[in-house]
Q: What sequence folds into this?
């Protein structure tokens, strides 16, 4: 049916045979836990480091798996030099980062989380961040940049607390994707993080959420999926 099942992998655990045996047996998609995030791949402005990211990529490919790239533009885990930028300098740095990382993996990574967690939890609007303050079009620019950098990759938006169809945040992301699709902004997939707990339970409308996003013409992935407080036997 085309479904894949993935897990996050840490490069520091690749020497642990129990860890790699389970990962190899149970999953056919791999996401780097932290090694492809901004602070890891561009620790100094204009100087890219893919050593740990490549360890994960190479392990995955050697074991017949695909890699989901995570993540290119995010308010968190930015290196210090990026945190100190603002305005047009930050916007250009974001573009350069996307181009640099995607050039390294061009044609090799089928899915990229281009933008991560850009919406506010409360009102369904945009999260206030240094990237948002560069202008409301920053997400669109990130996706257009990514498409040009690697036309073969599927480009994804990823967020948490967008599982419940009735929540304002879910509707905010849905409306963005609908707008992007209507205007030809390249977006191919949406990631629902799927953190279920007492404050964010599994909802009876979850299938409505998934099918509604899918009806816009995007793939839908459940990207993290944990059930906080659940018994280990359930």
A:
């Amino acid at each position: 049916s085309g479904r894949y099942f993935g897990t996050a992998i840490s490069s520091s655990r690749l020497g642990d045979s129990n860890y790699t045996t389970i990962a190899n047996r149970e999953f056919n998609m791999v996401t780097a836990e932290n090694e492809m995030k901004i602070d890891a791949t561009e620790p100094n402005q204009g100087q890219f480091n893919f050593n740990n990211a490549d360890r994960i990529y190479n392990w995955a490919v050697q074991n017949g798996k695909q890699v989901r790239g995570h993540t290119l533009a995010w308010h968190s885990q930015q290196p210090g030099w990026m945190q100190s930028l603002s305005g047009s300098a930050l916007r250009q740095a974001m573009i350069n980062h996307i181009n640099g990382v995607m050039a390294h993996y061009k044609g090799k990574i089928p899915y990229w989380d281009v933008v991560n967690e850009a919406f506010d939890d409360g009102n369904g609007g945009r999260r206030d961040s240094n990237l948002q303050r560069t202008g409301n079009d920053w997400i669109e620019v990130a996706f257009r940049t990514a498409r040009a950098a690697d036309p073969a990759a599927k480009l994804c938006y990823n967020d948490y607390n967008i599982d419940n169809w009735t929540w304002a945040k879910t509707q905010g992301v849905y409306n963005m994707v609908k707008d992007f699709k209507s205007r030809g902004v390249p977006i191919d997939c949406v990631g629902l993080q799927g953190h279920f707990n007492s404050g964010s339970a599994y909802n009876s409308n979850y299938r409505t959420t998934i099918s509604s996003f899918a009806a816009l013409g995007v793939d839908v992935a459940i990207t993290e999926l944990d059930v906080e407080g659940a018994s280990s036997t359930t």
Residues 75 and 129 are 6 Å apart (CA to CA). The mean pLDDT is 95. The radius of gyration is 17 Å. Strands lie at 6-9, 29-32, 66-74, 111-116, 154-159, 189-192, 195-196, 219-222, 226-227.
